[in-house]
Specification:
mainly alpha, Rna Polymerase Sigma Factor, Chain: A, Arc Repressor Mutant, subunit A, 7 helices, about 70% helix, about 0% strand
Length: about 160
């Protein structure tokens, strides 16, 4: 990959990669770090990565960086943040969806985001996450079940 192709990748995929990283990490500041690190890795590996495969490569790196970020945070104990309150008569759908995604572990959240938010096919997700296609389907099914159970619970009815 040449420098101009790298620059085109940055221009074309930075926003989508940030959205993915933000949903995976849950924090825009962490997502910025993940995106920056992902593009840094792509730059370092630009001689080895074909321009046509840069998108998959970037999402694979971002996925792994998000997992690393999650593992670092698990080792640190934080005081629980206060629950955000909302009125049952006027719930903010985005907050409900974000809370639903927060119910998932890092892998489940990433799989849901890659499939349902970014529109990747199962085989592409398998390549990005280093899982088999069957594992992707099984883990995605489990994650969707958790989301469904959370979203249909009484306290989340809109």
């Amino acid at each position: 990959m040449e420098a101009n192709e790298y620059n085109a990748c940055v221009h074309e995929w930075a926003d989508a990669l940030f959205r993915f990283a933000c949903k995976c990490t849950g924090q825009p500041s962490d997502a910025h770090d993940v995106v920056q690190s992902s593009f840094e890795v792509l730059w370092q590996k630009r001689k080895e990565v074909e321009a046509g495969k840069a998108k998959s490569y970037l999402f694979q790196v971002a996925y792994r960086k998000s997992i690393d970020n999650y593992r670092k945070k698990v080792k640190i104990t934080y005081a629980a943040p206060p629950e955000e309150s909302y009125t049952p008569h006027n719930p903010d759908l985005k907050k409900v969806l974000d809370r639903a995604l927060a119910q998932l572990d890092e892998q489940g959240r990433a799989l849901v985001l890659l499939k349902d938010y970014e529109g990747y096919r199962y085989e592409e997700i398998a390549q990005i996450t280093d899982l088999t296609e069957t594992q992707v389907k099984v883990y995605l099914h489990r994650a969707r079940k958790i989301l469904k159970d959370y979203l249909v619970s009484v306290e989340n009815i809109i």
